[in-house]
Design a protein that fits this description.
single chain; alpha+beta; Arc Repressor Mutant, subunit A; three-stranded antiparallel beta sheet; 4 helices; 51% helix; flat
Length: 95
């Protein structure tokens, strides 16, 4: 996927400043414009979704989505729902 995005000029990859094997990926100006167009195209769907929920339910949804986003932003920790991580952070199924 990244190769295709890079080939189309939407992202650029550069060497990570502290991890030699890693690359940093960033949107190019063309990628930013494309993202903004896609975000605007989804506005009517987001508006319909928000109208279908009451204010309290919408606040709850946003809080849950923030928590999921925060949890996914870092390495896996602990376990939930029958799944757990080992000392290397690898997810597995608890038996």
């Amino acid at each position: 996927m990244l190769v295709l995005l890079e080939k189309n000029g939407l992202v650029s990859r550069t060497r990570h400043p502290s991890e030699g094997r890693a690359k940093t990926v960033a949107l190019t100006p063309a990628g930013q414009r494309s993202y903004l167009r896609a975000f605007q195209a989804g506005k009517s769907v987001r508006d319909r979704m928000a109208r279908s929920l009451g204010e309290k339910d919408l606040e709850t949804l946003l809080d849950l989505l923030r928590r999921v986003s925060d949890a996914l932003a870092g390495p896996p920790k602990g376990g939930v729902g029958g799944f757990s991580t080992n000392e290397k952070g690898v997810l597995g199924c608890a038996r």
